[in-house]
Design a protein that fits this description.
Layout: E1 8-10, E2 22-27, E3 35-38, E4 41-46, E5 56-59, E6 69-73, E7 79-83, E8 89-91, E9 94-95, E10 101-104, E11 109-112, E12 116-122, E13 142-153, H1 156-162, H2 165-185, E14 189-194, E15 197-203, H3 210-229, E16 244-259, E17 263-269, H4 271-279, E18 290-292, H5 294-300, E19 304-312, E20 321-329
Helix pairs in contact: 2-3
Length: 331
């Protein structure tokens, strides 16, 4: 095994594990002699002189993220890979879904950055007996009260038609990365990004502050969007100013993870989810960029100022909803 070469630096964790060893064999430009041993996990990332840590395989490639992907091994020898990168990780040429755990089998090739390809090799996983009826994790659909936040880039259809697609995608990614950090700072969970839309939620806890936390986050997101719009290193679409509209809706939903033994993603079903997406479309210059449903307004009324927008008919609903604009936090 080679200790290193121009592109890669190997750090084998010094601990002794009960896991059988696996190794990654570099293919193509790096030659068959570059072999990187790991036990319970190995993380691949961009090389940095100050970040030479055990368990890292570091790559001298600017297209590789500082923490690009993680390969883990279970006690039975099965391996899993999770992509945490900006430019993506591929297995046998297929791009992985970010932040989702995917089983990695012997002989499969992991592609990282411009040229690095690593083939998984080692002893096969232990043979497992037929899974008993009660050995798999039982899924629980949890019904709970949440406040949903939906954020949408205004006039996105025109942006797609008029702006350079690569530049637009890069700008939207930068914006959503910063907005995700804001959501987390205010205790929310980002469920997903859908093209030009942000979907986050605040779940009811013992404090019962989910709606007020969501309102406070929405006001900060509005302010953050204005800052990002004025920053050409983030929003670089000249002639098309960044504007976003938001909506908050509170109600009961059913939350569950879907996938096999490990959750691949989060499913959320409930009227408030649909309502948030519908009422966001009523936002405009006159209303202001943050629309809330009656339940959100009722819960948060003591701490925030709202403007009554009257009744509106949301698509797909039988009855009209009295909507409100979130104006500011009371002092």
């Amino acid at each position: 095994m080679s200790e290193s070469n121009e592109a890669l630096t190997r750090y084998i964790p010094p601990e002794v594990f009960d896991y059988p060893g696996k190794w990654l064999v570099a293919e193509g430009a790096f030659g068959p002699d570059d072999v990187y041993l790991f036990f319970n996990r190995i993380e691949i990332g961009r090389f940095h002189q100050k970040r030479q840590l055990p368990g890292f395989l570091l790559v001298r490639d600017q297209t590789v993220s500082s923490r690009h992907c993680v390969i883990t091994q279970e006690s039975d020898g099965r391996c899993f890979i999770r992509d945490t990168s900006r430019n993506g990780t591929r297995v046998d040429g297929r791009r992985l879904t970010p932040n989702q755990q995917t089983e990695l089998e012997l002989g499969q090739v992991v592609s990282v950055g411009k040229i690095l390809k690593l083939r998984l090799d080692g002893n096969p996983p232990a043979e497992l007996g037929e899974e008993s009826e009660d050995s798999a994790t039982q899924g629980i659909a949890q019904r709970t009260l949440v406040t949903v936040l939906v954020g949408d880039v205004r006039n996105y259809t025109n942006l797609v038609r008029m702006a350079d697609s690569a530049e637009l995608q890069a700008s939207v990614n930068k914006v959503f990365t910063r907005l995700e950090a804001e959501v987390r700072e205010f205790g929310g969970t980002v469920k997903e990004f859908q093209g030009d839309a942000l979907f986050a939620f605040w779940e009811k806890d013992a404090s019962g502050c989910h709606a007020t936390d969501a309102c406070r986050a929405a006001l900060h997101l509005r302010k953050k969007v204005a800052e990002l719009a004025a920053n050409p290193t983030v929003w670089s679409i000249g002639g098309f100013p960044l504007q976003m509209d938001f909506a908050l809706a509170t109600g009961l939903v059913t939350i569950s993870g879907y996938g096999n033994d490990g959750a691949l993603s989060l499913s959320m079903v409930g009227e408030s989810v649909v309502l948030a997406y519908r009422i966001e479309k009523f936002a405009n210059k006159k209303t202001g960029p943050i629309i809330v449903c009656p339940i959100t307004r009722k819960i948060a009324d003591k701490k925030f100022k709202f403007k009554d927008l009257g009744k509106h008919h949301a698509k797909g609903f039988d009855e009209d909803h009295n909507l409100y604009a979130l104006v500011k936090e009371k002092r």
